[in-house]
Amino acid sequence: MAKIFEKFVEKNDIDNKLRIPSNSNLEALPPCRPGQEAKLKVEDEDGKIWEFTYTIRTENRAFFTKGWLQFAASKGIEVGNMVTLFKNDDQHHFSGCGADQYKITVKT
């Protein structure tokens, strides 16, 4: 699996939307131009599939919006937790949610 980003959760990430770090590998996400939205399906550590909407505001500012807050609440994510997003290189490790599959992990 290729790591797209890893970040410590901040207050705004659980109150509003998750800011994707500027040093992330955005090329590993589905195509999205600044000002547009794209859907991203991710599998959590329990095998549940979540759909996030992500948007790129400028070249270095991207966010998870729709779906993220429900995920964060469901997982009990708190400020200081570590969230990591990976892109699957091997389709056999995932339960199947499309050609490009992603995995998200949370460490407390």
UniProtKB/TrEMBL annotation:
<dbReference type="Pfam" id="PF02362">
    <property type="entry name" value="B3"/>
</dbReference>
<protein>
    <recommendedName>
        <fullName>TF-B3 domain-containing protein</fullName>
    </recommendedName>
</protein>
<dbReference type="InterPro" id="IPR015300">
    <property type="entry name" value="DNA-bd_pseudobarrel_sf"/>
</dbReference>
<feature type="domain" description="TF-B3">
    <location>
        <begin position="39"/>
        <end position="108"/>
    </location>
</feature>
<dbReference type="InterPro" id="IPR003340">
    <property type="entry name" value="B3_DNA-bd"/>
</dbReference>
<dbReference type="GO" id="GO:0003677">
    <property type="term" value="F:DNA binding"/>
</dbReference>
<keyword id="KW-0805">Transcription regulation</keyword>
<keyword id="KW-0804">Transcription</keyword>
<keyword id="KW-0238">DNA-binding</keyword>
<dbReference type="GO" id="GO:0005634">
    <property type="term" value="C:nucleus"/>
</dbReference>
<keyword id="KW-0539">Nucleus</keyword>
